[in-house]
Each structure stands twice: as structure tokens, then as C-alpha cells.
Amino acid sequence: MHLNKTTTIILLVAVAAFLFIPFLGRVHLFDWDEINFAECSREMIKLDDYSRIYVNFKPFWEKPPMFFWMQTVAMKMFGVNEFAARFPNAICGIVTLLVLFLCGRRIYDNRFGVLWALAYAGSLFPNMYFKSGLIDPWFNLFIFLSLYFFILYHWKRNGYDKEGLGKKPLYYAVWAGIFMGLAVLTKGQVALMIFLLVLGVYLVYNRFKVYFGWGHAVVFLLVAAGVTFTWYGYETIKNGPWFITEFLRYQYRLFTTHDAGQKGFPGYHFVVILFGCFPASLFAIPAFFKMPFTHRYDRDFKRWMVLLFWVVTILFTIVQSRIIHYSSMAWFPVTFLAAYTFYKWERQEAPYKKYVAVFTGIIGAIVSLLLLLVTIIAMNIEKLVPYVDDPFAQANMMADVHWSGWEGSAGVLMVLTVVLGLRYLKKHAFGHAAWTFFGGTAIVIFLAAALIVPKVERYSQGAAIDFLEERQGEDCYVNALGYWSYAPFFYARKEPPQNPNSYNEEWLLTGDIDKPVYFVTKVDRVENYTKHNPELKELYRKNGFVFLKRAIPGKAD
């Protein structure tokens, strides 16, 4: 059945809303990044300052403000809570699927647009990130749109055989600049770095034949600079260059050093994409190799996507820090290439590759097994405690979390998805295979978000968050002790500090405090503090966390 453009868009919006909006507020925000960003947005509202970012009521120069502006709007609509913090990315999920459908439809046809949107929505991490409070979904979308409009500019200027490019080249260059400016406002100048590296590699591939006009390049840069000036320029004019200078220094440090626990191994991002972008990652493999093409633009767009993939993965392999979302920009080319493979197979324009089914079966079996093991292990977790050496992890595992067994339905559905999908591949029913693999995976993620993630969160941080929420409205200080966490700021609803000493941990432990102080620490670190600070009183301990209080000296507790 062939659906027209309007009907397809309506269905896509409805399906995307169903996939991404439910359960946004079901789970506490996770330390660090989710709570960090939500706290920045909360403090924007609290301080009524929307040009400078703060966390713990200190300047926070690691990120530009675009995503925080989105979160503040959501928080003013829905309140300061998990749903509001994640709502911008649910909207991004809806917009992204529409963008992929419309881009795929414009380049190829309606069928390809649906396949591309389906591949993105039905792959593990691409889907899951739309349920998060992270910056990357919007950042990646803006970079992709900038590159997409630049490709259209290139085609128009150089006479590619693509119908529908009715505007002048300048039009496409301007839109590329607008979206690049928005990307830089979202997460910084790494967006322009990725963009220019892709353009540079394409230039080398074309044997240094310049494919753009220098005047148009200047327009692109001026438009992008104009968009970014709305914050970079305003902040500098209003408060001087210090904040922007610190932001740029941080960006440089990010690329040249690694944070503790984030070094990883050289092939880290390739493994993350292989498993995290399943099943699209497996179906993308044939499209990396030579395939028959029907038009010049067909071959060219695929080339752009392959170059984008390699630029992103190699760039963030060079970068010292290894964090999952650093390579998330590669999800756009990976899902494109997966859709491209199915599209060519369906149209019998490329031979079916049996090895794809073999690899998909292997990775699918691993993913299914992991999902099933989560439930099996959780229902028998007390039997594993003696085999764990870390006392904090042991105590985490003793959390009182009820598992009914239905949580395993996500793993069972993953098994059925892989088995049925492989059967369709064997029959060369490629359309059915695509819907089975991607549609089934999307439902698996939906079930996991509803049934598994809330219970896993109770082990990792639930007890600490409960304690912090109980401190809301109490005139006190609340701090993490012996480890870093943004949770005390957001979940205790910290107010702007009146006493600058409150930033000094030693003062909170031993000084002449003017309010009660609550500390959250861990079982393997608590003795380092209690044996040297007799005024600390242990309130209780739960699931690996220990909760302490220091009363005002001379006052009854």
C-alpha cells in the first residue's frame, strides 16, 4: 500500500510520539550528564539569567546554552522534573524521523524515506537517546542538516541530475550556515570541525577539484557566525571575554586529554556502533562497498555518508576521552547505509549478501542474551553477592527491587525479532525483514524503558536520590562526600548559597557552620571521614550509600 506524503508524515509523528514520549519521567535522571544539564537549566530559571550557564551556582563553561534554553522552556511548561528535562529530546526524536523521511524522499523516493526513518527509530542507541536528557540528539541533527543543505548546494551549483532543486545555490548555502550556527550554539565548535573535515576529505577524494564557490563559502561562514553571535557575541559584550575564553580552553582540553575513567581503547567507538546501533550497523556493511548506482546524485550522497562515518569515528578515536555519545553523529550515516542496503536489495539493484544474516544472527543473539540475563540475574542477584569483591557494588545489589519475570519479555521479543527477521532474509522478503528487525527492536526498547530501566536505576542510585528528595525545602547544606555527583544540587533543589564557605568541604566538615549539613557518601569511603570528624552522625545506610549529618555546634540535633 502506497501512502502519500501527508499521510506518511502524520503516521510518523504519531509513531514517534508513542515511542519517545511515554515513560520520560518514570526514572530519575542519571548522574552525571543528565542531572548536570538539568541542573544548569534549573539554575537558569532560578537565577533568571539565560545568557550564562551555571551549575552549583558557579559559571559552567563546558557547553553553550541552546539545549539548556530548550530545557528551561520545558521546565516552565511541565515543572522542574525528569519529564521536562527529557522532553526536548522526545521532540527531537519526532523531528529527526520527519527529517530523515523528507530527506530520503527528496533524494530517492517515499519508500527510501520510510526505510531511513525506520532504521533510525529501530536501532538501539539512536532510539534510546531520544528518551534521555543529553545534548547530543539535537547537536547531531543540526550538523546533519547543515551537511545535507551543503550537499544540495553542491548539486545545484555543479549541475547534478537531481530534480526539485528549484532554488539558487545561495539559498542552500544560507540554510547550511543557519544549521551550523545552531549546532555550534548547542555543543560548540566541534560541529564546524566535523563539517570542515568531511568537506576536506571530499575535496581530497575529488583530487582537489574545488566544488564550491568561495563567495558562497564566505556567506556560509558569515551566516553561521551570525547565528552563534546571538550568544557568543552577546555574552562577550555583556560580561567580557572571560566566560567565552574558558569555554574555548575547555574545548581544547577535551580533545587533548582524557578524564578519569574515560580513556577506553582505540577501537572503542567501532564496538559501540556495532552493538549500540544494532541492527542498522550490520545491514550498513554491504553499502560500504561498491554498489550499482542509478544516478550521479545516488553515488554522491552515499559517498558523503561514508565519508561522514569515517571522519566521525576516526576523529573521536583520536580524541583522548572515550564516551559513548561522542561517536553518535555516526548514527546518521550508519542508518542511511542500512536503509540503502535494503532499498537496493528490494529493487534488485544489488546482490543479497548472506554474511549479513550470519553476523546479524550472532550480534542479535548476544543482544537477546544480555536482555534475558538482566532479568535472570536480577531475580537471583542475592546468590551472586558473595562473588563480588567491591563492597559498594555488593550493597547496591542488595537493594529491595521486585522483579516479576515479565521484564524478560523484552529479551524474548528480541529473540523472536531476530529469528523472524532472519527467516524473511532467507526468503528474500527484504521489506518484511526491514520492518521486522527495526520495528521489533523499537518495541524491545519501549518495553525495556518501561520494565527494566526503572528497576536497574534503583540499584545504582535510587537510595541516594530518595534521601536528597527528602531534603527539598529544608534549610540545610547537602553535599556528596568522597565522590562527585550533581544529584545533591538538582534533587535537593539547592538554593543560591548565601555563605561562600559552603563551597568549602573542610568548612562543612569542621567549620563554624550556620545550617545543618547532610552528606551522602559510600560504604567503602565513609570511615575516612567519620574517624576524623566526630561531629558526623550516621543517620542510616542503604544500598551502598551512607547518609550523615552534622548539626550546628552547640545546638540540639
Task: Describe what this molecule looks like in 3D.
This protein is mainly alpha-helical and 557 residues long. Helices cover 61% and strands 5% of the residues. The protein contains 24 helices and six strands. The strands form two sheets. A four-stranded mixed sheet has the order 3-4-6-5. The protein has a two-stranded antiparallel ribbon with strand order 1-2. A hairpin with a 2-residue loop joins strand 1 and strand 2. Helix 5 runs parallel beside helix 20, helix 7 packs antiparallel against helix 8 and helix 8 runs parallel beside helix 10. The longest helix is centred in the first third of the chain and has 26 residues. The termini are far apart. The model has no long low-confidence stretch (mean pLDDT 92).
Rg from Cα: 25 Å
**Percentage of residues in DSSP E strands:** under 5%
- Which secondary-structure class do the elements indicate? mainly alpha
User: What is the terminal-to-terminal distance?
Assistant: 72 Å
Describe the strand arrangement of the main beta sheet, using strand numbers.
3-4-6-5
Q: How would you sum up the global shape?
A: globular
* Number of helical segments with 4 or more residues: 24
Main beta-sheet annotation: 4 strands, mixed
When the domains are counted, the total is 3
Low-confidence stretches: none
- Helix percentage: 55-70%
Secondary structure tally: strands: 6
Instruction: Please state the average pLDDT score.
Output: 92
Order of H and E elements: HHEEHHHHHHHHHHHHHHHHHHHEHHEHEE
